[in-house]
Amino acid sequence: MTQAQTETQAAPQPQSPPPPTQPPRATSEPASTEKEKREQKSFERWRHTLSLITGIGLSPEEFQAEINKQDLKECELRREQLVKNSPGVRFMMNNLQKAGCPLTKNMLECGPCDMTKSGGFSKDHGILLCQNGFFSKKHQEHTMIHEMIHMYDHCVFNVDWNNLRHHACSEVRAAGLGGDCNWSREVRRGFYTFTKQHQECVKRRAILSVQANPKCPDRATAEKAVNAVFESCYNDTRPFDEFY
Questions:
Q1: Residue 191: beta bridge partners?
Q2: 158-195 confidence digits (pLDDT tens)
């Protein structure tokens, strides 16, 4: 038998068994995926916040839409808090109810305005709170009370808003009772008069409001209307016992 034959006929060598199959790592991949999702969500929040601050990555329209959304959210949150917790707001709501003109939630709405306004009253629609017009929660509170006084006057005294003297009287009362003319607000506007500060502020702001009436031709007419009613309307603090 040759060497070649001997090698051919040799018994086959046993082979090593294959390594055991690793079980699928079913738990690690979902955990990793969930972690990635959380990280991505955190990153998107950060990017969104940065975009709002800087405007980078947003068109002017998108940027303004985001600002409007944030303004609306803050205005509505403050409105709910003030309706529940503000003594002045609750007092006016109770007196509107007693007068037969309850202020419902859909009559107290937040919305965008031009930057010269913080609120308005419409006898047909109720009160508009200018969501982009407030610099603080206290400012919004004063605006709500101011507009509620207009609503109270319309309900109780049957105000004719086309009559400049009627309009002037309600503006004097709202400016005097709504908190518009407290010391801190006047300092913010740059007025520092110490003598008759409140009266001067009330008169000045009432004139500005009457001047904006479409029926008012000029400032001189607004001044005349306010001066004619100022003393009696300034001293009429209904439904408050005194200046709020």
A1: none
A2: 999 999 999 999 999 999 999 988 876 766 766 666 66
66 catalytic residue (yes or no): no
Q: What pTM does this model have?
A: 0.73
Name the segment(s) of the chain with CATH classification 3.30.2010.
51-158
What CATH number has the domain spanning 51-158? 3.30.2010
As a whole number of angstroms, the distance between CA 206 and CA 188 comes to: 18
Residue from 141, 147, 171, 186 carrying the catalytic annotation: 147
Mean pLDDT, all residues of the chain: 83
The one-letter amino acid code at 81 reads: Q
The H or E element that residue 111 is part of is strand 108-111
Over residues 9-19, the pLDDT tens digits come to: 444 555 555 55
Q: Is a pLDDT exceeding 60 seen at residue 28?
A: no
- Residue whose C-alpha is closest to residue 181's, from 196, 198, 203, 195: 198
pLDDT value, residue 105:
80
Contacts (Cβ under 8 Å, ≥6 apart) of 90 = 83, 84
**Looking at this protein, which amino acid is placed at residue 101?**
C
Which tokens in the block code for residue 208? 């500005």
Closest by alpha carbon to 157, among 101, 201, 199? 101
Region for residue 57 given its phi and psi (left: phi exceeds 0; alpha: psi -120 to 50; beta: otherwise) = left
Q: What interhelical angle do 60-85 and 28-54 show, nearest 10? A: 90
